[in-house]
Amino acid sequence: MKRLLLIGAVPLVLWPGGVAAQTSHPAFAGGAAQAGPAGRSDIVTSDVDFNLEVAGEEASTSVQIGGYTTKTYATPDARQRTFNWTVMLRAPIGGDSDITARETLDALSNGPELSFTMSLFGFSSAANHLARLEPYMAQADAICAARSLEAGTRAGTSVKDAPQGAAAPLLELLAREAAGEVAPAPDKPVIAAAIDAALEARRNGEDPVAAAEQAARSAAQGRCNAAVQGVVDAAVQGVVDAQWVRRFGPLTRGQINGKLFSPMWRIGVRGGVGVKRFAYVDAATLEERDPVKVPFRAELFGALYPGSGTSALIGSVQYQNGFENAEEGLVCKPVAVDPDADCVTGRPVPAKNIERVNVAVEYRQIIETGWNAGDIAISPKFTYDTLGNAFAAQFPLYFIPRRAGPISPGISATYSSKDDRVRFGAFLKSTFTF
Q1: How far apart are alpha carbons 390 and 382 in whole angstroms?
Q2: How far apart (Å, rounded) are the C-alpha atoms in residues 147 and 108?
Q3: How confident is the model over 332-341, as pLDDT tens digits?
Q4: Alpha carbons within 13 A on the beta-carbon side of 266
């Protein structure tokens, strides 16, 4: 039997919204699902996820579907408490999965599982910390205005220095190229206003530079102020305009969240149960038997999320009671006369019971790269089985596209003391939202 190995590439966690205005934490993204590194012990999703992991010549696929519900209330000291209930159905698809994944020490990884999670979140209202953000947004406004003025100066200078008799299209092209050299470039309407004013001033025999600067300053004043206010309003809702912040903000998206929000904590319990048939060959009759087994798990977990909304520290203790089939081999009757008639290929003994008490620690971090394509994320996880004295480590590296798309790729390295080897692999995650 060929063993299919999971290599530690698990779904990116999706944190849905549903929290009232001016009370949401960045982890909830103000009603929009937001990608973060790994969802293992605390999956919260309203999507259908399809996952493919490949390591060398081996592969594994799985699909999971679920839903959630939340209830939020405020305490007298303006802190928020959110209860969350989640039901999730997960099932491996394709291949033979009777052997559990040693890379994750998950005794229920070889079959379908229905799980239920109940947890409690706690965090402070964003409105309490809004004053911390105002000085930085004022600085962002000044940066936006300065770059707009610089673009106007360059556009006006290119028009002023152009040869006499140059056609208007050429003047416009020169001005646009000059203004575009400002990095990051101001908004297109600001550049367009500066170019139009410079061309008009040249036609009227006036100074194109002064006209372009005045037009850029006027256009930028309204747009920069509105953009800053929009960033502040959205940040209070838990959503930061990362593109605008990258262009003009003195702080990163995580730093803005850190100014607005206090750390969030989460505690919860999770239970899961599966149903699976485990086939083996009865040596006395050479008949295949496939009794139904019911593996289950129970878990207690806790997590701390800094106010930045880009990292998390998670710890858990989990009891697992699962089953695992033996490797296939030649099964013969107690007295074999004719090997062709008295022997078959199959599993010689019933599935053995597996008990584990796993203690796990995981760290999640989104790394803001500043790339237009997206960010990267890591989520190293270390698991120790206290009953079996086994250790496993996972280190997935995710690429999080900035634009919504069907694929979230990544690479992974895993180690398990069960087979004392390091494995490298790649994975794809495809999400279809209903």
Answers
A1: 11
A2: 57
A3: 988 887 888 8
A4: 29
